[in-house]
Recover the amino acids of this structure.
């Protein structure tokens, strides 16, 4: 199973999620790709992801996380001893998301949701200060990320496989160009 975890205010309708779903369908592996709508609560998001992992425990697992989903993927990779591809991952979301406490909307709908102060404390519970087994991680970081600092990402994933994109943006607009590289990492034993 390839479990894709989207970022804050994002959804399975995001560009990268749709692109990956289309790619897996085009190679006859659509049943391997799972991308749930994550709840606003970090504890609920982790619980949902872990439940999906537990349901398919007999399958090989690789996580792909974007932004806040990268933070979740790091925690889950450590807990489940699996690989993770991290695309511009958040490494300090309790600090970075504090300014979003309150009611906001998702990027792909007008439906409002509340990001509660209690969620900041939930985020702290899932912090991984030092990764183990760096070979299990593949970091894709863009120097042009307008939301997060790519240098924090590089520092957080030392000795992991890293692809540093000069320029680009937080969403990695040219992500299609990296799908084969991501797939090679996912499929490698």
């Amino acid at each position: 199973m390839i479990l894709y975890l989207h970022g804050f205010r994002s959804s399975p309708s995001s560009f990268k999620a749709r692109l990956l779903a289309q790619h897996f369908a085009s190679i006859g592996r659509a049943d391997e790709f799972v991308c749930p709508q994550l709840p606003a609560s970090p504890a609920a998001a982790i619980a949902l992801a872990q439940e999906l992992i537990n349901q398919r425990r007999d399958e090989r697992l690789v996580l792909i996380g974007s932004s806040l989903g990268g933070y979740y993927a790091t925690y889950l990779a450590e807990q489940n001893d699996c690989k993770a591809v991290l695309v511009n991952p958040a490494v300090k979301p309790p600090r970075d998301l504090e300014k979003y406490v309150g009611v906001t909307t998702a990027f792909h709908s007008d439906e409002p949701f509340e990001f509660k102060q209690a969620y900041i404390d939930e985020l702290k519970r899932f912090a991984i200060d030092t990764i183990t087994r760096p070979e299990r991680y593949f970091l894709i970081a863009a120097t042009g990320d307008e939301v997060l600092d790519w240098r924090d990402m590089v520092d957080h994933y030392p000795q992991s496989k890293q692809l540093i994109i000069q320029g680009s943006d937080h969403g990695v607009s040219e992500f299609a160009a990296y799908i084969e590289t991501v797939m090679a990492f996912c499929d490698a034993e």
Q: What stands out?
A: The chain has a mean pLDDT of 95.
